[in-house]
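Run log // design_07
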């Protein structure tokens, strides 16, 4: 994989906001939907995957993963940055295309269900309002990668909100829960910063 900073066209010293802006600008420019009926559709899809992977890698590097003692770029042989499908799923969640993100996650082999898979499935379940199931997925992700700051942040915020609202989680096997938790829970910025958007658009 190319140096992710070069992919986004920013300096390694750029601020988080500058990096996020560069990512969003490129995502708008190369989004496959703009080239759906064009001969450039495949190239746009490939470019979008590269952009997503680069942004994912920078986020991981800045959270203490994927970098050496000097903080320089070391490449990323595992995780979302090295998996185009996970990068695509993150983009789908960011665009609120939850059904397609869910479909892709569930179509993956058991051998591919790593910490990133559980984290993204947690985000999907959260978006659908299945908070208990989402928390379990975040817990699994943290168990598999206990040092991942992104996963930990999601898990911690879910725990804090459950405590605040008395643990009134809704699961994928329940009907309307009718609790305040469903309407007021604000998850950690588990998807916000990593995907360049808000997990809950109104917050």
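design_07 sequence
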């Amino acid at each position: 994989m190319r140096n992710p900073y070069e992919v986004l066209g920013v300096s390694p010293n750029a601020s988080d906001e500058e990096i996020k802006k560069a990512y969003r600008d490129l995502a708008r420019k190369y989004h496959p939907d703009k080239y759906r009926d064009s001969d450039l559709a495949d190239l746009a899809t490939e470019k979008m995957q590269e952009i997503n992977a680069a942004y994912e890698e920078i986020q991981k590097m800045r959270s203490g993963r994927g970098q050496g003692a000097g903080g320089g770029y070391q490449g990323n042989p595992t995780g979302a940055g090295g998996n185009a499908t996970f990068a695509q799923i993150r983009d789908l969640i960011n665009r609120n295309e939850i059904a397609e993100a869910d479909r892709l996650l569930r179509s993956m082999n058991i051998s591919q269900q790593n910490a990133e898979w559980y984290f993204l499935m947690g985000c999907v379940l959260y978006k659908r309002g299945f908070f208990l199931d989402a928390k379990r997925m975040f817990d699994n992700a943290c168990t598999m990668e206990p040092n991942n700051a992104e996963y930990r942040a999601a898990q911690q915020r879910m725990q804090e909100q459950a405590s605040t609202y008395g643990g009134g989680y809704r699961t994928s096997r329940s009907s309307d829960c009718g609790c305040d938790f469903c309407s007021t829970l604000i998850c950690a910025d588990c998807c916000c910063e990593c995907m360049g958007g808000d997990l809950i658009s109104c917050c």
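The radius of gyration is 17 Å.
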